[in-house]
Amino acid sequence: MTVRAEIQAVTDRIVERSKPLREPYLDRMRRAVEQGPNRTALSCGNMAHVTAGCGPDDKDALSFSPAANIGIITAYNDMLSAHKPYETYPSLIRQTARAAGGAAQVAGGVPAMCDGVTQGQPGMELSLFSRDVIALAAGVGLSHNAYDAAMFLGICDKIVPGLVIAAATFGHIPAVFVPAGPMPSGLPNDQKAAVRQQFAKGEVGRDELMKAEMASYHSPGTCTFYGTANTNQMLMEFMGLHLPGSSFVNPGTDLRDALTSAATKRALQITAAGNEFTPTGEVLNEKAFVNGMVGLNATGGSTNLILHMVAMARAAGIAITWEDMSDLSAVTPSMAKVYPNGLADVNQFHAAGGLQYMIRELLAEGLVHDDVLTIAGHGLHHYTKEPTLRDGQIAWEEAPKESGNDMIVRPASAPFQKTGGLTLLRGNLGTAVIKTSAVKPERRIIEAPAMIFHSQEAVKAAFQAGELNKDVIVVVRFQGPKANGMPELHSLTPPLGVLQDKGFKVALVTDGRMSGASGKVPAAIHLSPEAADGGAIARLRDGDMLRVDGEAGTLEVLNVDLDSREVITADLSANSFGIGRELFEVFRQNVGPAAGGASAIHPTVLA
To answer: Is 44 flagged in the annotation as binding?
Structure first.
């Protein structure tokens, strides 16, 4: 089916806007394809180093035959539950590649921060910048130019976006992203959130809080709420970089291992040595990013991807904007209710039909492009199929045509709401975004006096002192990328949720980020320009009347002449040292604005 006019219009303007970037990018990728990778161009000494660590079979294959070689970029560590399963993947990949007539080597490792550990801690100020570090580290691994394809092992918040930036930069070779799947369901996410609010109110002690957290995060695998990690997995399917239906298969299962082996075989098939050469630069085109943005809206995904998608696209020579995302949201139905947008977790979402059901529905309604190149072949329709094991062999079968639970996932023709969950906010305070899919309709417009803070710790102290027991818009400034690395402010969710439950009108305005798990409190986030860059938020004062309107898409201070006010500055020296923050000064000094992806690698935005 032809895509709807509104989808095509956004696609066309992205294509036109991107020409100064995309055409030179594609030219570079084509020249790189012509030049290699070709191990025969390496000197004998070079090749000896490439193969010195290999076993005899791989050494012969790599040195004396045209066998394709896969470079594995792994984000494995055994502290991060989502990445713990990756410990055994390189062995399985090497074994599979060898049996298929190829070879595989771990080309490099990249850091993988667990945002769940660093929430509310100083280390969170390194989190966003870790995305660029991951891209750089993956680039080092692939720079050996000894690989015909890359397999990327990564799941969580900044890891997948960083790996996509690297994959796009090395877009002359294929890239296959390999998930590890979510942990089995534990304590329901809404129950965990309730205990957090009880703790914030002092109704339960730390022992009860610890029991709830341990029952929720309890085994290897991705956290089961629909935060940034699982949104990344959705995106890799909508953009054609995963094998179909592979995102939400649990770790430690026969199907999970079979999918990893299938991904390895597919990586070999789509190299220049195979019959279906699929360079990543061709996969990551304008239509693929539009599909990803539609998927983000239709599923109610994490607001972090609003930043990451801009940065990922830029690496592929494509310029997308928050306006593109907001305009697509206006015509994309909200089809899923997964916590924090609903009560279900991702395991229940997957069982109800999940991504394969949604992609079929969106294709049928003309809301995504089918005419795209993916690692599974030409056409997004490949992603309407789900994997299964038949006599020990993996097969892809058409997913059910009906939702398995219409309280979790609904058809595009009868969605939970007619628009997606992301809205662009504009006004005299600048430009921000709000995710409304988890916010009740009656709370999407908040007008209240401001209380100004320069740290989340100060907000929590005011909450404990009872100073926030009123209608209030909490403003937390100097939280942007230039100020302190733009940490997530997820630890504010419980206290603000308590205030909202008391009946107060509550909202958050910040130049920082919120976690992908945040939702029910209206939050105008990623405000640009940020306070450290002289943005209007730095001119606000306590008591100013603010209006956050998630329906009309406005963010304003009322009855104030901001130009007549002095810009407040802040002492940011405490954000410069400790827990590695001093190592990231170069990022803070060179980072671009949030609206441009908050990247130090590509710090400018296309006008």
So the answer is: no
